[in-house]
């Protein structure tokens, strides 16, 4: 059995697919199987796949019922000890990523870091442990995660959701089934943030709340809603600010100044002369 199954999902993204394939076949580590699930693309993606056919262990191009249906197809064809999803447009950060990461694969789920879009700072889980609080507004970076294939035997991705089934899967196996977890500081992926789960924020929030309402006790769910509303989208940038003391102080002063200006404006608009 190979150590790793790499699965790529693609639909009409031939340029992104070529970039992804190149980043995989150029890895210094080679003990993997490579699977591509294409959703019946008509933009030349199939020709790209055929160009690299000798590097691909299994591929298919046929209509699917959404990204999680395609991911489940890939899982069911995989045979490796771990699965990693490197979908079209994403790429490994360096050629020795797999060689470095697989030295640390001694847990059910191993999660590294990723670079998002044009930003040059790595994002990802920040602590060695993981709790439900980490999933209230965040998640584990899926393209930077290595998941034991055995976890999928009873937990394929829920195809009833469009953008959050990987998040739901992580909650199920890590929180409710207490699977082992390891956080590593290696930058695994350069992540293409133009996908549906990255751009459709409203749908993501709706689906998350639907899932949590079904799995949490009512009063715990109310706590989640309160916390989520109090949370800030700037939270993800906190690690960056914490490493830049001068800039951090500048931002603090700027925000404090803006709050004072806002307070003055509110007084004027609510107490007109």
Automatic annotation (TrEMBL):
<keyword id="KW-0808">Transferase</keyword>
<dbReference type="InterPro" id="IPR029044">
    <property type="entry name" value="Nucleotide-diphossugar_trans"/>
</dbReference>
<feature type="domain" description="Glycosyltransferase 2-like">
    <location>
        <begin position="5"/>
        <end position="129"/>
    </location>
</feature>
<dbReference type="InterPro" id="IPR001173">
    <property type="entry name" value="Glyco_trans_2-like"/>
</dbReference>
<dbReference type="GO" id="GO:0016758">
    <property type="term" value="F:hexosyltransferase activity"/>
</dbReference>
<protein>
    <submittedName>
        <fullName>Glycosyltransferase involved in cell wall bisynthesis</fullName>
    </submittedName>
</protein>
<dbReference type="Pfam" id="PF00535">
    <property type="entry name" value="Glycos_transf_2"/>
</dbReference>
């Amino acid at each position: 059995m190979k150590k790793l199954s790499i699965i790529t999902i693609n639909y009409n993204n031939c340029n992104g697919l070529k970039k992804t394939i190149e980043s995989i076949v150029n890895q210094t580590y080679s003990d993997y199987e490579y699977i591509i699930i294409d959703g019946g693309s008509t933009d030349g993606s199939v020709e790209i796949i055929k160009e690299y056919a000798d590097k691909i262990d299994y591929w298919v191009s046929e209509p699917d019922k959404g990204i999680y249906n395609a991911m489940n197809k890939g899982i069911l064809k995989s045979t490796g000890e771990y699965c990693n999803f490197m979908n079209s447009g994403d790429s490994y950060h360096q050629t020795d990523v797999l060689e470095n990461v697989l030295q640390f694969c001694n847990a059910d789920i191993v999660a590294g870091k990723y670079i998002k879009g044009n930003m040059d700072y790595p994002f990802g889980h920040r602590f060695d442990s993981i709790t439900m609080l980490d999933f209230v507004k965040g998640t584990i970076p899926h393209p930077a995660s290595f998941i034991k294939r055995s976890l999928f035997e009873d937990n394929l991705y829920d195809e009833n959701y469009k953008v959050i089934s990987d998040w739901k899967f992580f909650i199920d196996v890590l929180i409710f089934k207490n699977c082992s977890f390891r956080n590593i500081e290696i930058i695994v992926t350069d992540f293409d943030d133009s996908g549906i789960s990255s751009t459709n924020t409203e749908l993501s929030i709706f689906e998350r709340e639907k899932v949590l309402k079904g799995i949490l006790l009512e009063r715990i769910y109310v706590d989640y809603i309160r916390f989520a509303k109090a949370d800030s989208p700037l939270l993800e940038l906190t690690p960056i600010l914490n490493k830049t003391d001068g800039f951090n102080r500048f931002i603090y002063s700027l925000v404090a100044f803006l709050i004072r200006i806002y307070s003055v404006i509110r007084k004027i608009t609510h107490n007109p002369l």
